[in-house]
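Today's session is about reading a structure prediction critically. Students often jump straight to the picture, but the first step is always the sequence itself: look for stretches that repeat, for charged clusters, for runs of hydrophobic residues. Only then move on to the predicted structure, which in these notes is written as discrete structure tokens rather than atom positions. Here is the chain we will use throughout the hour.
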Amino acid sequence: MIKLFIRERLSWILFFFIIHFFMLFIAYIDESIPLSSILYIVFLSSIIFLIFCAFRYQKETKFYQKLKDEEDFFDSSTFSHPLRPFEKIVQRNLMQQLEQAKKDGVQTQLHVTQEKDELLAWIHEIKTPLTAMHLIIERLENREVKANLTFEWLRIHFLLDQQLHQKRIFFIENDMYIEHLDLESLIFTEIKTLQAWCMQKNIGFDVDLQAERVLCDAKWLAFIMRQLLTNAVKYSEESDVMIRSYEHNGQVYIEVKDSGRGISPQDMPRIFEKGFTSTTQHEDSRATGMGLYLAKKAAHALSIHIGVQSALNEGTTFTLAFPKSNDFVDMKSM
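Below is the predicted structure for this chain, in token form.
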């Protein structure tokens, strides 16, 4: 701040020294003026000038130092008690801009909330014709047409489900209810949803649930499992997807293992990033890159750790490590 103060007052400081240098120069060339007296006056005035600068530094930088150090820039108390006219101008302009920024922020928040509510309402409305379409598809006798339509229906269903959870995930803490869940019922419900797609791709499931129950939220755990199972089926062909659960050191683990195309090493650090699809499989234009991203965010809110192991063209294993029962005591929903 001292350097800034000197730079700000540099012209005045130079003016002071130029005037005194000019006085010494006049005393030097004019023998009628005693040089020693002028030197004494210059010395005293320099001392007084330094004291004056130190005093003004304390007065003038207090307001700006507070602005510089303030963490909460939107706190109006930051601009209290300006001492100088220019400080009052700064305060007035900043306060006007802050008030306008707050109004714009409130309007933006209301607009975003309204759009979110409208989108959620639309998603719920669209589920009705989707359900009717599914019932119509189930009545079709042509198996090939039925399989193709079921696959496309599933794509729409999963995209809507993903969009619904994407909007809800920002308020996930308010949407959780932690309880003991029956893993068999939850997992088989998700497998049944994928049944038609699995039959089309000749994919089966090998389920081994040594740990039968887990403490978690039903809706969000089902969503996480849906993303993992969907990825396993999507990137596999004519193979089994293995699902197993077990308990180790007081923690429950769920593994979802497929024998599909796997993940390249260069993609592994980025698979949970928003919108990331693949740097090697460019032909898969239908991927949104949102499934694992949302699953990771939901898992983080539930204190679930998602681990992944994969080898290219050999398959992928996702592991859900649930927190110990005592860890849920700190969760807001409890």
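Discussion point for the tutorial: DSSP finds nine helices and seven strands in the chain.
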